[in-house]
Amino acid sequence: MKLISWNIDSLNAALTSDSNRAHMSRDVLQTVIDYDADVIAIQETKLPQAGPSKKHLQILEEHFPSYEIVWRSSVEPARKGYAGTMFLYKNHFTPEVTYPKIDAPGTMDDEGRMITLEFDDFYITQVYTPNAGNELVRLGDRQIWDEKYAAYVRELDEKKVVLATGDFNVAHKEIDLANPNNNRNSAGFTEEERAGFTTLLKNGFTDTFRHIHGDVEGIYSWWAQRAKTSKINNSGWRIDYWIVSDRVKDKVEKSEMIDSGPRQDHTPIYLEIDI
Question: How far apart (Å, rounded) are the C-alpha atoms in residues 142 and 146?
Fold first, then answer.
């Protein structure tokens, strides 16, 4: 089974804008299409409450004619046009689709952050984990989210194998970002967030990238847009993951980043697993 996950940072912009960045996004999207994955998870869609427009759906159907599409948008009282997730899956599959709420703090459950696909023998679930925010204003809520999310996937794992993916907004270890010493108190690399991800893995899950590649350094999934040379200098972070139930980790055949060329921000991540 071939699976892709990508924080696209605005599906609307990627599909309809004429900016230089949008053209780069569409180049990456074509690369994703060429992989012919069975399931594609997309985070940070930033779509309206009602979801994709007719124009969005038309473009998606042109690009992905053999896929079903499900989505979840941010809804009131959460901010409009914020966060959001989407799955595309080959139309010969018939998973049960659920839109979990995990009793998270504030408006987090209303921000469209999770979708789960249930197949006969396994789950595929995606998440767009809340960022701790500027000056870590949301760190306390983020810690609660991490606890609730870990409990959710642990509950799934008690029933079936779990493949979990998304933008987890944390670089787990020092080798998962280029400049750990300069980011000790930065959102995504606090001790609290790293501990939360450690706890998640200890609940019976494997970081597939590390399982395949060991302690390789210098491979990242995100480069800051505001720093114009971040990708040229490879000053990145690995904050996007495919994690799987421990009992199927040896079925993972590939776990890697997909080349997104000069486009900064997130790059898609790829998982191949014999399941």
Answer: 6
All structural domains of the chain, each given as residue ranges with its CATH number in brackets, are: 2-273 (3.60.10.10)
Of residues 146, 157, 167, 265, which has the active-site annotation? 167
CA 233 to chain centre: 24
Q: What are phi and psi of 238, to 5 degrees?
A: -105, 100
| 67 given a catalytic annotation | no
Which residue of the set 67, 82, 89, 128 is catalytic? 128
8 A C-beta contact, residue 220 and residue 236: yes
Which residues of the chain register pLDDT less than 50? none
Can you give the pLDDT at residue 177? 98
Report the pLDDT value the prediction gives residue 169, as an integer from 0 to 100. Answer: 98
Q: Which of 165, 175, 168, 173 is nearest to 244 (CA)?
A: 165
The strand pairing partners of 166, in sequence order, are 127, 241
Per the annotation, the verdict on 167 as an active-site residue is yes
pLDDT at 226: 87
